[in-house]
Batch of 3 targets.
Target 1
Amino acid sequence: MFLALRELQHSPFRSLLIGGIVALIAFMVFMLTGLTRGLARDNAALLLETPASHFVTTRDAEGVFTRSFLTPADVQRITAVAGNAATPLAQSFVSFSGGERQLSGVLLGVDPTSFLAPAVTTGQPLTPGAPGAVVDLSLQKDGVKLGDTLTLRPGGETLRVTGFTRSARLNHQPVVFVTLARWQALNPRSRDSVSAVALRTDAQVAGTAGTLKGLSVYTRARTLQLLPGYREEQGSLTMIQVFLVIVAAFVMAVFFYVLTIQKTAQFGLLKAIGASTRTLAGSLVTQMLLLTVTAVLTAALVTAGIVRVLPAGIPFALTPLTLLAASALLTLVAALSSLLSLRTVARVDPLIAIGTVA
C-alpha cells in the first residue's frame, strides 16, 4: 500500500490520465447497460411487471399473443384446470387520436376483477361494464390528460381516459387497458375469442393446462423471449456490452503492462535492496485497484448526474444494484488484467535491471 501510494503521488499526471481512461470506459459500460435495460423495459414492461407466472396460447401460435385465438370453450377448459388462478386477456394494436395528435398503442382487454387489472396511479380503476380506459403514464408526454377522449381510427369509436397506470408498455408502445367486454365490442371480428389466458399458479397446475389439446403453456420468462423482436434487440445490445467489457479488459491490461515494463529498472533496484517479489506484486495490484475503484466511482457519479438531465423520451433504466454489479465486474476485470503485469514483475532480474540503470 505504501509503495502504491508513493507511486501515485510521485506521478499524479500519469495517474490522472490512466484513471481518466478507465473512467471513460466505465462510463460507456454504465450508459450502455442503462440503455439496454431501458429498451428492455420499454419493449416489455408489461410482461416484466405482470403478476402472472404462465400464459396459455393456442399451440400453433407458439406463445405469440397476436397469433393466438382462444375460443370461449378453450377458456372454459383452462379455467376448469386452474380455477380462479386463470384469467383471459385480449390484445390488438390500435391507432387513435388524442387531441390534435395521431398516436398508436396496444389495446388490452382484461377482467377488471382479475389480477391483471392495472393499478392506477391517478384517476379511477377499471370497473365491470365501464366504457373508459386506463392508459400508460407515458401518454401524458403526448398531451393525453385525465378525462380526455381517445378516438380510435378508422372506426371512430371513443374511449374516455379514466386513469393512468405505470409500467404498461409493450412493443415500445403504451398500453390502453379496457374491459374484456369492451375490447370484444371494439373487435367484432374476434368472435368472442381472446389472445391468451394468464395463470398465476404453480408449475404443476400450469403443466396440467399444457396437456390440453391444441394448447401450449409458457412461463413468463419464455413469453418474454417470444415477444416479437425482443430477443433480437436484447441479443444485439448484450453482444455490444460483452465486447465493450472485453475491450475494457484488453485496454487496461495493455496500459498496466506498459507501465510495468517502464518500471522494470525500478523494480530491479528494489529487489536488489531486499524488496520481495510478493511486496512488489502487492504494490502493483494495489495501485491498479486504487486507480480502478476511484475511476469507476467517478464514472458512476457522472452517470447518475447525466441520467437526471436525460430527455424523458429516452428509455434508460439503471438501478443501484445494476450499477453496483457493473462496477464490481469492471474491478474484477482490472484485477484479472493485472496478472499479465505480475508475470513481468516476477521475472525481473535485479542484476540486469541495475545494469540497465547504469
Target 2
Amino acid sequence: MRYIEQQTVVKRMNSRLIINKIFQSIFLLATLLALLALVILLYRIVSQGVGHLSLEFLMNFASRFPEKAGIKAALIGSLWLMMVVAPTSIILGVGSAIYLEEYAKQNRITSFIRMNISNLAGVPSVVFGLLGLTIFVRAMALGNSVLAAGFTMSLLILPVIVVAAQEAIRSVPGEMRDASYGMGATKWQTIIKIILPAALPGILTGSILALSRAIGETAPLIVIGVPVIIQFLPAGVMDTFTALPMQIYDWSSRPQQEFQTVAAAGIMVLMAVLLIMNSIAVIIRNKFDKRY
C-alpha cells in the first residue's frame, strides 16, 4: 500500500494556496475597478448637477435658456410611460413563462421557442424601435403617443421578463407542487396559491431590472419620433409626450456648457426614480422571501 508523502502534500498545498490568493486578488481588483468607475460616475454627475437641482427645476418645462430649463414634462411623461410598460410587460411576460413551464409540452418546439426568447433579449434596442414604428406607429396609427411608446418598450423588455420568470418558476421545488396536488388542488390553484408566491421574489428581481432598462432607453423613442421638448403634460395614453432620457439626450447634445449641468441634474432625477423603483421591489421581494 502506497502512502502519501507529507512533504509532497505540503508542497502541493502551498501551490494551491498561492493560486487561490492570486485569483482572490484578481476578483478583488475587478470589484474595486467596478466600484471605482461607479464612484467616478456618481461624483461627476452629482458635482455637476447638484447646483441646478431645485424645486423650480422639477416644476418648470424645458426652455432654451439653461437657467429656466426644467424637467416637469419629461418626468411626468416617463411616469406615464411606466404606467403602460409595467402592466403590459409583466402580465404578458409572466403569463408566457407560466405557459412555457407549466402547460406547454416539453418537446423540440417548446425548446426552440425558449431559445429564441433568450436570443431576443440580446437584440439591440434600435431594432425594437423599428418594430414599434412599423406596428404601433404606422400600422395601428397610434402615432408618437404614450401607448405606442409603452408597447414598443414592452416589446424591448418582454424577453428579459419571460426568461427571469421562467427561471424563478423552475426553481420552485417539485415537492411543493406534489403536496398541493396531493391535497386535491387543481393545476390553476397550484399555480396561483403555491408557484407564483414562491417564485415572486425572482420574478420581481427580473422585472425591476427590465423596467430599469426601459426607463433609461433612448434609441426606441427616437425611432418612433417622440419629441424632445414639449410645453404641456400628457392627459392620457393617446397624447404626445417626452421622457427623461430624451430630455437628457437633448440637453447633453447642446453646445452651451450650461446645458451640461442641466443634463447632469436630469440624470440625478432619473437615478432617483430608479432608486425608488428598486426600493419598492426590494421591499416586496423581502416580504415574500420571509414567507417562503
Target 3
Amino acid sequence: MSEKAGMLVPARIYATSTILQSMDSGVFDQVTNVACLPGIRRYALCMPDGHWGYGFPIGGVAAFDVDGGVISPGGVGYDVNCGMRLIRTDLTLEDVQPHLERLMTELFRRVPAGVGASGFVRLDHATLDSVMTKGARWCIEQGYGWHRDLGRIEEGGCIAGADPEKVSDHAVSRGINQLGTLGSGNHYLEVQVVSNERVFDRETAAALGITGHDQIVVMVHCGSRGFGHQVATDYLKVFEKAMRRYGITVKDQQLACAPFRSLEGQDYFAAMNCAANTAFANRQVITHQIREAFATVFGRSAEELGMELVYDVAHNIAKVERYQEGELVVHRKGSTRAFGPGSPDLPDAFKQTGQPVICGGSMETGSYLLVGTERAMQETFGSTMHGSGRTMSRAQAKKSVRGEQLQHQMKQKGIVVKAVSMSGLAEEAGFAYKNISEVVETVDRAGITKRVAELRPIGNIKG
C-alpha cells in the first residue's frame, strides 16, 4: 500500500491474497485516513472482514493516547455496542428438528424485529437512566436473566462512566421502547448446530460448554438500536464544530473527532457508554425471551435445558485499555476484543482459555466460536475480526435475488427463516458476504485468534 501524506503510523491489513483482492477500494483509503488521526499509536489496523464504512472501515482497530489522542464516533459506528451473544443448550438436532418450525414461530413472536420495532419492557425516563448506568445488571434485577449471566458478558454487562445527562432527549425518545428488540439490517437471531467433526479444539470447547454431538446453540447479533444511532449522530455534529476549535483537520468528515480529554470528548465517551450499556441490556432481555420460548416449546425450564450464556462481546466500541504504551483509547468498529489467556481483565472462567470471540457469518453459511490469544495482545491491541464482511452492497444483493426466492432456497437447505421484510432478507443473502471459513482461517493462521468450533444455522430470524 502506498503511503499517504499525513500518515502518522503505518496501516496494516490482515488478509490472504484472495481476501485482499476482494476488498473494496474504500478500505485502503479509509484505513490510511485513520492513520493520519492525532495521537494514533503503532498502526491503523483492518481485519480480514474489512469493508467500507462511514469514516473508519468496518473491521477497523485504532488506539490513541488518552493524553494527546482523540476519540471519534466514526471509529465506533452508529450502532454503539453492536455485538454478539451465544447461548448453549443441552438439546441436540434430533430433539429440535421435529419442533423447529414451531420454535422459530415462537421466537419470532417473542423477539420483535424490524425497523422501529418496540419491545414488551415498558420504561419511563428515570428507568431508562438506570438501564444506561447499570446495563445488563438492571435486567437481572428485574428477573430477565440469571445472576451468573453477568460473569459471561464483556465488562460484566456494564461499562463504568455512563452519564445519562450527556444523552439528548431525541436519543431517549428513540430508545425508550426498544429494549428487547433485534432491529433490522444484518441483525439476527439464529438457532445453530455444533457437529462433532466441526469442533477444532475439544478442551477449550468443553470449557466453554460446547460439547458437539449435534448440540443446539443460539446466537444473537444486535446492538443499541435507534438510541445508539442518535448518540452517534448528535456527537458527530458536536465534533465537526469542535475540530475547528482544537485545530484538527481530517480527510473525511465522518472521521470527526475531539481530544479524548476535552469536554466534548468526555461528553461523547459518557454518552457512548450509556448506549453501550443499553445494548448489553437489550441482548439480555432478548436472552430472557429466547429462554422463555424454548421452555414453552420443550415443556422444560431454561435451566433444565442447560441454556447457559457462553459469552456476550461488543464489536462497535471505544474503551480505555492498558498496553505497553500506557492507557490507550482503543476503537473497535466491526472488530472484536480478543484478550488472551491470563489477561488480568478477564474473569476466572476465561483465564485458561482466553476470551471467547463470537464471529457471525452469513445466514446461509454458518458462524464460528473462537478464543483470544497472547499474540493479539501484542499485535492488534487484543482485537480480531467480527464476521465475514460484505463483498456486495445491499442494493446489489436485492437486484440479484428476491427475498421469497431466498427463503425457499434456504428451506430446501434445512434452514427455517422468519423475516419481517423480504427485501431485507434479500440484502443478507450468503453470496453478498466473504467466505467465513477463509476469514476465520486468516486470523487463526495469523495467531491473533484460535478456532474452537463452527456453528451451522438451522433457523434464522431477520428484521
